[in-house]
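Long-time lurker, finally posting.

We've been working with Gfo/Idh/MocA family oxidoreductase (Cyclobacterium plantarum) and I want a structural starting point before designing mutants. I don't trust myself to interpret raw outputs, so I'm hoping someone here can both generate the structure tokens and explain anything notable. Sequence follows.
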Amino acid sequence: MKIIKNNQRRDFLKTSALITGGAMLSPFSLPGAYAAGEDAIKIAVIGCGGRGTGAVFQAFETGHNIKLVAMADAFKDRLDQSYERIFKKYGKDKVVVPEEMKLVGFDGYKKAIEAADVVLIATPPGFRPDHFEEAVRQEKQIFMEKPVATDAVGIRRVLAAAEIAREKKLNVVVGLQRHYQDNYIQTIDRIHDGAIGDIIGGQVFWNDGGVWVRERQPGQTEMEYQMRNWYYFNWLCGDHITEQHVHNIDVANWVKNGYPVKAEGTGGRTVRRGKDHGEIFDHHVVLFTYEDGTVIHSECRHFPGATNRVDEGFQGTKGRAYMNAGHTGRLSDYKGNSLYEHDGENNANPYQVEHDKLFAAIVKGEYKFADAENAAKSTMTSLLGRNATYSGKVITWDEAINSDISLMPERLAWDAMPKVVPNEEGYYAFAVPGKTKVV
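Top reply, 14 upvotes:
Generated this for you. Predicted structure of Gfo/Idh/MocA family oxidoreductase:
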């Protein structure tokens, strides 16, 4: 087993920044069927829920000559609903998906990827390593949603595929869209330039009331039920510290120019305890310690009726920083004097910007984006935090990333059983800090 050491985090960030910052190669025809200047760019969407459908919209809104040629989803009704929404908005000139390319089931993604130049991957996160590996194997340009895996086994697969993608000069953009949001870019650039000195602490939050629940329906197999209600099962979602809070954790890594060496924390199930709430916690509080000793406080919870908070704040030796997804970016010294205030008016939608930049590079025949490695390591940071809250122990980065515990089912089929199943009363076992083994 390959041991992934801490100092590789810094090396990766330098490489990623070089590529995404514009270390441009001379224009060339990118791998895959599409050559710059020729015909339409063919796209396929893997995962036809709201995020996959939205990614297709955003691809079309780039204004380039793009056609949707294939769709894949485990569920026919989800695919059909997505197709209807897309076709209604964009019509037959852009939506060219024959019936045989509406691919339903666990393996349809392979054929969908084969038909496309650019692949939009937006399935539940547990499937992402499979789909990303295949898209890289077929040498496609890729947009992939976050997070990119739900266990360390999957993270290592994504990291390996990301290395191949770089070697093949495949653009990979990942939906950690704060990297494409101007207030974050401008504020963090100034932090890295020393505007508030060395970062010595920080707090990152995703506290809100929670998400949807999909109740069990008569006749569903256990596999279908869990996939319909995927947010509440770790093999599919990774828990909300990974599925949602990865955004804020990623900002902490971005600000620190690295990844934590260890984590400790607490969490549990306080208000969300029903049969349809699967195995995930409703709150996590984690202390991430970085190599220089900096400690970042990470907090996420799903408490209906409680105060919401989704933002990031950091303290440096000379001042403090504050950012949020509402286009705020602010730096000040400790006397309250403003050092920088981002003008958030009329800022571009970062969900659109990430597609604008990806397709602009493809059309020009440029290799610019290598997001997968940072996305994998920020996802791994969230898993490190989950390991700490589930176990109640201090967990190191090396212990977590080299864990051989796989959450994925042995077989993907409607009659197959996931590894976590309900008891006779219909409830699922969940982690117990102090008892649960995570590495």
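Before you design anything, note these points.
The longest strand covers residues 199-208.
The radius of gyration is 21 Å.
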